[in-house]
């Protein structure tokens, strides 16, 4: 099974939550801290990402980058 992880360009995330809803493994959440624009960026808060990239595909601002490695 593939193992994945994401990075988020936090300064551009607007906390819309579309990626959180799209994640089939529910490993994303809106964080508690604020970015420079006053939004709470998304974060991967636990293991279990499979690298499917649904989060990145649904992000309207293209702030998510997905990394995937085959295990």
From TrEMBL:
Keywords: Iron, Iron-sulfur, Metal-binding
Matching Pfam families: Fer4_7
Boundaries of every 4Fe-4S ferredoxin-type domain copy: 4-33, 39-69
A GO molecular-function annotation: metal ion binding
Matching InterPro entries: 4Fe4S_Fe-S-bd, 4Fe4S_Fe_S_CS
Highest taxon of source: Bacteria
Protein name as annotated: 4Fe-4S dicluster domain-containing protein
């Amino acid at each position: 099974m593939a193992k994945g992880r994401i990075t988020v360009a936090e300064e551009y995330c607007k906390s819309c939550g579309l990626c959180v809803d799209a994640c089939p493994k529910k490993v994303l959440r809106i964080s508690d801290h604020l970015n420079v624009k006053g939004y709470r960026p998304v974060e991967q808060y636990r293991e279990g990402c499979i690298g499917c990239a649904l989060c990145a595909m649904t992000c309207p601002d293209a702030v998510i980058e997905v990394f995937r490695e085959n295990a």
